[in-house]
Amino acid sequence: MSKIKRKTASDAALASVEMEGFTVPRDVRVNAEKFINGEISFPELISNLYEQARLNIEKDEMVREIK
């Protein structure tokens, strides 16, 4: 997939999420840029996103335990 196609796909995905009223976190945007620039593969992008989500869930659970 060319850089232009990766950028177009990424922009469409980000716009879709934002149209639903959600905010795309900066770390997700950074990973998307790495994918667009060919620094990481699509499977690496997905793996990174799952790891970020897991860490965010763990952080949220810890915050709830403190409260």
In short:
The protein is mainly alpha-helical. The chain has helices at about 5-20, 25-35, 40-65.
| Overall number of structural domains | 1
Strand elements, count: 0
Rg: 14 Å
Which structural category fits the helices and strands?
A: mainly alpha
Largest sheet: none
Helix-residue proportion: over 70%
Number of alpha- plus pi-helical segments: 3
Percent of sequence in beta strands: under 5%
From the structure provided, what is the oligomeric state, counting identical versus distinct chains?
A: single chain
For the record, give the distance between the C-alpha atoms at the N and C termini, rounded to a whole number.
46 Å
Give a written overview of the molecule.
Helices cover 79% and strands 0% of the residues. It is mainly alpha-helical and 67 residues long. It has one domain (3-66). Helix 1 runs antiparallel to helix 2. The longest helix has 25 residues, at 42-66.
SSE inventory with pairings:
Elements lengths: L2 H17 L6 H11 L5 H25 L1
Helix pairs in contact: 1-2, 2-3
Features:
3 helices; mainly alpha; 67 residues
